[in-house]
Amino acid sequence: MRAWYRNAVQDFINEDTNSILGQLTTSSVDAGFTVEQPQNVSWQYEIAKLKRVLPTNLPCHIYFEFNIPRMGRRIDVVLLGPNLPYIFVIEFKVGASKFLTSDINQAHDYALELKNFHKGSHNSKIIPILVATESNNTDFKLEFAPDNVAKPICVGVNGLQEVISTFTFDGTIDGDSWENSSYEPTPTI
After folding, report:
1. Does residue 131 come out as left (phi exceeding 0), alpha (psi in the -120 to 50 range) or beta?
2. Where would a tag sit more exposed on the chain, N or C end, judged by fewer CB atoms within 10 A?
């Protein structure tokens, strides 16, 4: 599996936080990484906030530390909508109150990498979201480029809830197929 933790959003919300942290830590160690205290604190924060802001009836899958095929990078959180109409790429900056250009570019790069190198993401609309946890910003404007990758949205935690709540999700999704789809660069690269 490419993600260090994955689950349906409804099950994620109901799962014990220590269980989620245990899975993230085990996956990190299995991948050859040491979990330092700041990483553990970041995961705890992300889990707590996502459990608070995600609707309990959201028919999506959530992935923590999603490995982008062959790129050697991991996305903090991916929310995958049913029938693949939307993929949310969420990059947290815990303790940040400002949106730095380098952080905005990081979130955008992750979205582009999914779009261009992860076969299961080629036909989806991808929305990168940068969350500066100490920001109160809730304003956002959704703008898609011709490749269906949105301009990064920069919000605080409460803004994240507003972004996600603006979308309607219906249907079912095969998260396993999406997660395990192959490395296949798009022909336009």
Report:
1. beta
2. C
